[in-house]
Amino acid sequence: MIELLALLFGLATLAATAWCPPRLTRVLGSLLFALMVGVVSRFAFGVHVALLAAALAAVLALRFFPPLVLRRVVFLVPALVLLIFSTTLLMYRAPGNPFANERATSPQVEAALRAQYGVPKNASAFFGIYMRRLLVEGTLGPSIKVQGRTVEELIAPAFPVSVALGLLALILSVVIGLTLGIFAGLKKNSLADHVSMALALFGVSLPSFVLGAGAMIVFSLWLGWLPVAGWGSLRHLVMPAFALALPNAAIIARLARSGMIEVMQQDFVRTARAKGLPESWVIARHAMRGTLIPVVSFLGPAAAAIMTGSFVVEVLFAVPGMGQWFVKGAINRDYSVVLGTAIVYFGMIILFNLLVDLAYSWLDPRVRSSDA
Amino acid sequence: MTVPATPGRRAEAGVLPLDGAGVLVPAETPFRQVWRSFRKDRLAMAGLVVLAALLMLAVLGKLFTEWWVLFDPATVRLPDKLRPPFSIPSSSIGKELWPTLGLYPFGTDELGRNVFARMLQGSFVSLSVGVVAVSISLIIGITVGGVAGFYGQRKLGFVSVDTLLMRVTDVAVCFPTFFLILTVVALLPPNIYNIMIVIGITSWMGTARFVRAEFMALREQDFVTAARALGLSEGRIIFRHLMPNAMAPVLVSATIDVAHAILTESALSFLGFGVRPPFATWGNILADGRSYIFDAPWLFILPGGAILVVVLAFNLVGEGLRDAMNPKLRRRASG
Questions:
Q1: Alpha-carbon distance A206 to A246, whole Å?
Q2: Based on CB atoms within 10 Å of each CB, which residue in A253, A369, B53, B271 is the most buried?
Q3: Which CATH superfamily is domain A159-320 in?
């Protein structure tokens, strides 16, 4: 009951952040941003550097960040806390617990284990312990199933793997999507247009695991060009990255095509042509910006899609990334592993969305001026 | 205001046809107009045919695998594991385990289960997850969007209803949906209804925004003022006058959402968080066949192909509908 009330209160707070006046948003946003930077850099560099980084972040944010981004920070930090809380509630509601195994444990042993790992029987108490660990002690807590390791020790080797895969996939999807989309948009209703839009339609409809498994059969079994699965060399990276990238590339291609078609009918393009600018200059300097705007606004969702899609692709290609740990943690009811990976994923999505917002306000002056 | 139906009148009217009572009737209802331009879109029609076939298949699948068990998806025949499609059962299979057709049309999986039966069972699951999840999201989305669009100006304390509801929508949009679904489903007991509900309540935001925009535009139009002036109740105005006019974009996005929901379900089943194992879905056939992908490629090609065809069909129909319903596009295509 209390938990339900707390959940409702959290949701209300989240919604209330939307009404913060601009001044308050600026101060609060900078402080929360500093908090985020501090907590993250503490994992990487230790307490002293973290304090310095947090102070620097606060000043930078207060002075330079556009209101849109600060508003987002004000919204996202409570959202992150709410995510941790609701995930905790769900974990406690779920059948099974980390200490349930084949042999029945005596209540005394279970109580001792619960005390040792900081997993009390009550969800709110666990939430309290977890938040204190995260903010005060700067740790994601011990893993319950992997003996003697903390969650950050487990995630640390997996994190760069997931980031490398995700970044490569994102770059591939943007490059492929933009190329296809711009050519299709410039030569509207030509054969090239129809072919690339048909490809895009297939890309939207193909789940990445079907694409990945098909690529495995073709490139590993029949042609023998690439290793089937695993991790270690650049050649291992190719198939998972493409499997992740192509569905998003398809969406980007469609956005870029319609953006290009729309921009090419605008008056300023006609003006540029009338001035006698060469066509390539008109496209590269004038039309490109209008084409990029819808694409950039899609990058946030695309990054989220790639990160979550990587769960499936990592499982399929046996890539030792964070997705594996999330899946294992959820199956084993290893509470701290589930929460730890969830926080890192959600944090990365937040961070990326912030970057996208910054890029967006730089590209589209209308966004920059408005205090949305 | 009826016009007397004299022959002279009718001739004068010319292009405006009058029916027997002399009431003006439009040459074509909007529905027939959309249908006419939809029919010209060959790809969309192909998608529609595929969907109709799939609907039949799904119902038959439910019928033959669960109620009147012609094809049993759960029978394990260990001597016959990983048989290719169209192979005949080996002699060690007893009479009581003999498959209905006398062969395995789609081969068998790693436990010797009939893949044809499993695919049939899976077709019902995929389709019902898609349809039920989208229905849930439509109910939430239309309610939120409709209330925000129609009663948006009312005040609740210091905020208007519209601001409140749209802020909530914005909050919901910011959460990464698939991740949320994954977290929830990974922790809830694996059960198909949970999946439907979770997909439904995480995907209503688009619908809400469409409906709100349509309602706000329609509310100010003359025919609504006229309906008010006639003293019609609010309920009647909303359900008889606004709703039908607001449905076009909703229908389009719902069709494409079904495709998304099917993809999501298959990805969840693939990760092992979906429907409980003895029950077959296309996603978990794929997941089970993952380790045998080189020995038994049909375990991947058949369900993967099925997912592709269904999702493609939904996407094609959705896009065909969009083109048919969007008057701006229609004009551009003809002019």
A1: 9
A2: A253
A3: MetI-like (1.10.3720.10)
